[in-house]
Each structure stands twice: as structure tokens, then as C-alpha cells.
Amino acid sequence: MSNTDPEASAQRLRTIVAAATSLELRTPGHRADLVNRHTLDSSGRIRLDLPVNSRLATDITRQREVTAVVEITDVAPTPVRERVRGRGTFSGWLTPVTPGATGDHEDLTVEFDLAAVELSVDGATTAVDPADFAAAEPDPLAAEEAELLCHLDRHHPRTVESLCRLVAPRHRHGVRRVVPLRLDRHGLVLRLERMSGHRDVRLGFTPALRHPGELRERMATLVERGAACSRRSRTW
Length: 236
What we know:
Layout (H helix, E strand, L loop, with lengths): L5 H14 L2 E6 L2 E6 L2 E3 L5 E6 L3 H9 L2 E10 L8 E13 L10 E15 L2 E5 L1 H6 L9 H11 L1 H7 L5 H4 L4 E8 L2 E7 L4 E7 L10 H21 L1
Antiparallel strand pairs: 1-2, 1-5, 3-4, 4-7, 5-6, 6-7, 7-8, 9-10, 10-11
């Protein structure tokens, strides 16, 4: 296990769950890929909606508790190499929510009681206390990150090129392509791709974002700094 900051790991996991549209669910005798069938409430509880007539829903209804593993993969929305940015693995038990709580007769809503939580990033795995996961807040840009990154990549290549000027020259050597990889409260991460291999570089926000409404100002500051670097390089 790595010695990553527990609070940061818990927030990263909450962000992955909040932003994800799909997950893999494994139980004894069952495996399913669920799309748009999970929610995360304000208390950090994961709930899943299962087709009421499915074998798994029938087993949970009969047994009242089924062991399960949920895996959620954080995939970069932009076209970069090695698109997996991280992975959350959650182990515990599925239990049915009190009948009638959702008002949806086509699905059985089950709650995931967590026993163990892990975050895997860059080949390192960190154990996260389930209570820390439940208490963490997702990143304020979680719901918008994918759309914002894709917009920046597709419609503002010159801006990305300008932002790359903020990266130390030694890291830009041999770079063939620059792609925005991550956007969160702490800043923008660029992936610098070379013929072989890549480097991820963060351009930080100062101070960190408190809410999405501050993003425009923080990005404008980064863009202006990048433009200033470009102007200086032309005068040398």
C-alpha cells in the first residue's frame, strides 16, 4: 500500500464515484456491468438499482444480504494513451432498501454497506477507511470535468499550446502532443506525449477552487500566464 494522504485519497474516490456513469458489480455467481444505475447520497452511501426480475435482485430479496465487489474505473475523457487515470474497488454487502422507498416498481434499490475501500493510481494501491470515504466531499468540478476537458481539447488547441509554455522547458523537450488530462479544484493536468512514454504535469490554481463559479477566473489567469511566456519567448 502507498502512503498517500488519506483525505486526498478519500476525496479522489468520492470524485470517481460521483463522476462515473458505469461500474462493474461482482457477487458470488454473478457479474454485471451497470450503466447509470448507481447513486451516491450526501452521506456517502452507494445505492444500486437492479432490474427487479434479475437473478441478483431475486437473490438479494431472498437472502437479505449478499457479499459484493464494485469496481469503478476512472477513464480520461480525452484521447490520450493509457486512458485509465485510477480505479476504485469497494467490498461489502448488498442489502435491499425498504420496499417502496424509491417508488420504482421496475427496479430493486439496494444499499452497499462498505467493509473495505481501495484506490489504485499509477500502479500504487491505497486502502481508504470506509468512514473517511463517506465523510469526504467530491471535487466541485466532478460533474463538469469531462465536458470541460473535451471542449478545451477539441475547440481550443491554441490555448492548450499556450498553457504548455508554463511547463519547464526540460519537460517539453521531445514532446509531440499535449492533451488536457484532468481538471479539478487544484488545477489543470496536461499530458505531454513523446514518441515513447509521456509525462503528466499539473498547472495549479492559486488558491484552489471552492466552487465551480471560480473556474473561469482561475483558467483566465493560467491562460494569461501562458500568453505572457509566449510573448517573452518571441523577444529572446
